[in-house]
Design brief:
One of its GO terms (molecular function) is transmembrane transporter activity. By secondary structure, the protein is mainly α. It has a domain at 69-257. The protein contains 13 helices and four strands. The strands form two sheets. The chain has a two-stranded antiparallel ribbon. Strands 2-3 form a two-stranded antiparallel sheet. Strand 2 and strand 3 (177-180) form a beta hairpin. The longest helix is centred in the first third of the chain and has 26 residues, at 50-75. The relative contact order is 0.18.
Length: 332
């Protein structure tokens, strides 16, 4: 076989593989997750077990829920650098209200409404003042970090028992596999958001705005209203993440989840959602959140320092964005 013919066949194979991966955006993240599980199972004696997999899923819940809200915003070609800070403020508000005499249910609702209002404010600043989402949410990150420290007086607050910690309640599937209420709640959240994104006019508008906001406006879509609703819904989801966080720790801490923003964005991007908007979905984000949790669990069990874990996470983001850009160039 001549050399030019071999090269042509190689190019054809690469093109077919690129097409398969482009048509199945969950395929790449799914294979990445599988490879990570195989590598860490081979590298350690403690990774491959039902208890460890259950723990990994529990550890991915808060970041996975933050990433769910982040997915909505990134689908519109935006980004939210303040999502973890908003969630931490939510945990503190809920906890302080409950310890101050509010019924737990009332404190929970107030906390979720507060995080939704913060999201609504970010959306309003993006649309009304026409400010870049990066700038708005970077400013909001500083504001919410300061507000959380001032409101908490710089200290952690114990979470009352009962409703606020119910997400950490564990039951055993088939009598052996630990399953928490937080896992079930996360599954419901992902299903609901996934259905809304794929089966409703609002979901189609979100993708249209992310693909080309001006084209969407010319077709009659009220772009500003869609964007504000996306940020508000994302804020409400951050409130749900706050509830899950309260179920995992005995106290609400203003210094918690300092890498939450990075982990949530990483989960979204390596899950196949484009940072340039208009492409992706919640299934990829769920896998992306698991990849982040598997990476941190596996590296921890291998004795790798947390600084190197952050380094690996950052490298993953850069690699995922590079692949996304290459895919877009090939699609043109």
């Amino acid at each position: 076989m001549s050399a030019p013919l071999v090269i042509e066949k190689d190019r054809s194979l690469v093109t077919r593989l690129s097409t398969v991966f482009a048509r199945n955006p969950v395929l790449g993240p799914g294979l990445t997750l599988l490879v990570a599980v195989i590598v860490f199972s081979a590298a350690t004696t403690t990774f491959f077990s039902a208890d460890n997999f259950s723990l990994i899923i529990q550890q991915s819940l808060v970041i996975g829920t933050l990433a769910l809200g982040q997915t909505l915003i990134i689908l519109t070609a935006g980004i939210d650098l303040a999502n973890a800070a908003i969630m931490v403020f939510g945990t503190l508000l809920i906890t302080k209200l409950a310890t101050g005499g509010w019924p737990s249910a009332g404190a929970l609702v107030a906390g979720m409404l507060a995080t939704m209002l913060v999201g609504l404010l970010s959306g309003a600043l993006v649309t009304r003042l026409r400010l870049p989402p990066f700038i708005v949410t970077l400013g909001m990150l500083a504001v919410m970090t300061a507000v959380a420290n001032i409101y908490s007086e710089g200290t952690s607050w114990p979470v009352p028992d009962g409703l606020l910690q119910v997400m950490g309640t564990t039951r055993y599937l088939f009598g052996q596999i630990p399953v928490t209420f937080g896992m079930l709640f996360a599954v419901v959240l992902y299903l609901v958001v996934g259905i809304v994104l794929t089966r409703t006019a609002w979901g189609r508008h979100v993708y249209a705005v992310g693909n080309d906001a001006e084209a969407a406006r010319l077709t009659g879509i009220r772009v500003g209203r869609v964007l504000v609703s996306v940020y508000a819904l994302a804020g409400l989801i951050y409130g749900c993440a706050a509830w899950m966080a309260l179920g995992r720790t005995p106290s609400a801490d203003p210094n918690a989840y300092q890498t939450g923003n990075l982990d949530a964005i990483t989960a979204v991007v390596i899950g196949g959602t484009s940072l340039f908007g208009g492409r992706g979905g919640v299934a990829g984000t769920a896998i992306g959140a698991l990849i982040v949790a598997v990476l941190r669990s596996g590296l921890t069990q291998m004795g790798i320092d947390s600084n190197y874990q952050n380094l690996a996470t950052g490298a993953l983001v850069i690699a995922a964005v590079a692949v996304d850009q290459a895919t877009r160039r090939r699609a043109r």
